[in-house]
Amino acid sequence: MRILYIVPWVPYPLNSGGNQAVFTMTDHARRQHEVSMLLYVHHAGERANLERLQALWPDVTFYVFDAHEEARIDNGKPASPYASMPWLRRKVCEWLDYWHHSTQRKLARQRWNHALNLLRKPAVALSSAEQSSAALSAFVRANSNLYREMNDFAPAFCDYVSEVARKGFEAIQVEFYEYLHLVYLLPTDVRKIFVHHELRFVRNENELELFQPALATERIMMEREKAMELAALNRYDTIVTLTETDRNLLSRYIDPEKIVTSPAITKNVQQTELPFRAATELVFIGSGSHFPNADGMLWFCQQVVPALRQRLGQLPALHITGQWRKALRTCISALCPEAVFDGFVNDLPAFINGKISIVPIRIGSGMRMKILDAFAAQAPLVTTSKGCEGLQVQHGKQCLIADTTEAFADAIADLLGEPALQETLAAKALQADTPMLDEMDLIRQRLAIYEHND
User: Fold this and answer.
1) How many other CB atoms are there within 10 angstroms of residue 297's CB atom?
2) What pTM does this model have?
3) Residue-wise pLDDT tens digits, 331-348
4) Helix H segments across 173-264?
5) What is the b/e burial string over 278-293, where b = at least 16 CB atoms within 10 angstroms of the residue's CB?
């Protein structure tokens, strides 16, 4: 079968859960199908990563839209909606349009910086627990998807997608919410598949719950975005969710016959060769560019760390992997001086081994690969209910689940003080009998989607 994958960024290197999911699935699909991939390359770093990916996949055809090429095309043939106006009026309209978008970006940065400045204050410096919580709420609101402008695709890119999509493919698979609405550009006679890594309306609802208080206008914004998401999803022939939880949620609005559960692939956890090592430090796996990670770590450092200090006195090192903006690193370090930013880690299982993995996630849906990474590394795990949502785990068996500040601090303190409990949880996680931990079963599930071509 000729399949075209359309993804918003180069899925390499494997430095995020999203990249791991796309890379691994594509890597298996290309061995059984004729696979092509359409990518938007934004900068020189992505171009270098693309060259590395092309070397790994010589049998995959790449259709690449380059950001610099977009500028060249637009300069050669103006794509402005005001192009047909007289010269002076066009310039005024273009300037006003630029001023509007520039002002929106500056206001967003101001809200973001103000919220971070509030968060940098130690909890003891705030007059009450309510103010401390309000500071975190302001950060969530400043970063909420509800206040982000709709992704306006460049006209040249839309033309490119339309052109490539009509090259005789039997199936076109779109990945990630950022490209959801490209469905309106795809041919009607080609099977269209969307892989929904995170239900955006669920994430928006989670964020709204953290606003203090949520405004009536924000509820309208949430419902409007939800309606747009569901309308676009209905244009696809097949929708892939990563967990049964997401499938059940989506089935309330979309024909369940169109929805397939197919978890992202992780290496077979039961085949790990790492020995158990008692954990004396903490680790968080994930990049700060994914907002649920940033929110989770700020909640942990601002709310949980003070409670943990009361229990332990001195905190162990807190290792944080992935890319984090300087302002976020500064804020986290002010709240938790024990934080160590390790950046990209080549051998992730070995790095996690011997540490307690924490997943203080409060926002989002989908599947958290970081939990399966912890299982593979025999690392004891403390997570929120949201963090392990969709995974077949239970409190006290494969991990400890805690949703409040006090409970999360208690769980970490208990694990640090009981190496035997750490070993018991790690062993039960390895023995878990769940298809989400079986690599070959996950591959079969995903490839079976292409066999049912309408």
Assistant:
1) 25
2) 0.88
3) 999 999 999 999 989 888
4) 200-210, 216-233, 244-250
5) ebeebbbbbbbebbbb
